[in-house]
Amino acid sequence: MRFGFHALNLGALATPEAIRQIVAACERCQIDSIWTGDHIINALTISTPYPYSPTGTFPLRPEEPILEPLTFMAFLAGQTSAIQIGVSVLIVPYRNPVVTARAIGTLDFLSNGRVIVGVGSGWMKEEFDALGVPFAERGAQTDEFIRIFKEIWTNPQPQFTGKYYKFSGITAYPQPRQKPHPPVWVGGNSKRAMRRAVELGEGWQPGWSRPDQLAQELQEFQRIAERLGRDPKSVEISLLRPLQILNQETDSHRPLVGTPEQIAEDIRAYQRLGVSHLVFSFRTRAVAEAVETVERFATQVRPLVS
């Protein structure tokens, strides 16, 4: 199983000094991947429910930092040499798909093939409104834009005709290092996200699911894959969830929050379900504690599941 750490571009840890320290710890500890989330702006008032909170409240305050993810991924590529660089998830409708495909392809080319492209259709209507993007059409745009990405990444003279975009008579050099293209992992727990992963993705990355929840979601995922004629085992399964390493066992145990032994057992539970890449977010706003989390995971947890 591979392991990564997520969302250094959002909130208190999104400073050059903090990022350099955490990324250096990830490379030093041979973590497999580092990840960014995607917001371009925040809103002073958000009425749209946040789908990954029981209260529906977005955890990032309006005055907290947000680093644009594609720019941030280029910074990460320059700070690292071997670690994979992922986005989870890129809100596909926010950006011109041709420009986005070329930016990601350039990043993959310059990083020697280290990019993972998590994709999603988005949730914050206020952000769509600020960008002038139709919220109601985000799903259809996401599907079309992913197809545009792959056409540009794989065809040196791409052409496309769709509902939102059409182009021909152009070239797209250089192409990405990864062949046929950087992997596309579809994020989200909904049936629509599952279907998108089966139809258009190389991977599926639900968020926050406990092992028992994921087991049920995987049953639905397998039904969708079989209905669409795809082997579900051909889709890589990743998972995004917070990690906190404690010194003492806790009775009210949440997955990936506990002692190294408890966390290792949680990882094995996810592994038994077919998860091949776990991506952790930090449960701290302090740089030193984030670095310590990386180091403790590498030295105290990972050896228990190797």
Task: Write up this protein.
Helix 1 (16-28) packs parallel to helix 9, helix 2 runs parallel beside helix 3 (97-110) and helix 3 (97-110) packs across helix 5. The protein is globular and about 60 Å long. It has 9 helices and 11 strands. The mean pLDDT is 96. The protein is an alpha/beta fold. The protein has a single domain, classed as Luciferase-like domain (TIM Barrel, Alpha-Beta Barrel), CATH 3.20.20. The longest helix has 19 residues, at 287-305. Helices cover 40% and strands 18% of the residues.
Tell me the name of the CATH homologous superfamily: Luciferase-like domain
From the spread of the alpha carbons, the general shape counts as globular
The total domain count is 1
- Low-confidence parts, pLDDT < 50 over ≥5 residues? none
Strand order of the largest sheet: 1-2-3-4-7-8-9-11
Q: SSE layout and pairings?
A:
Blueprint: E1 2-6, H1 16-28, E2 33-36, H2 69-79, E3 84-91, H3 97-110, E4 115-120, H4 125-131, H5 138-154, E5 160-161, E6 166-167, E7 184-187, H6 191-200, E8 203-205, H7 211-227, E9 236-245, E10 257-258, H8 260-272, E11 275-282, H9 287-305
Parallel strand pairs: 1-2, 1-11, 2-3, 3-4, 4-7, 7-8, 8-9, 9-10, 9-11
Antiparallel strand pairs: 5-6
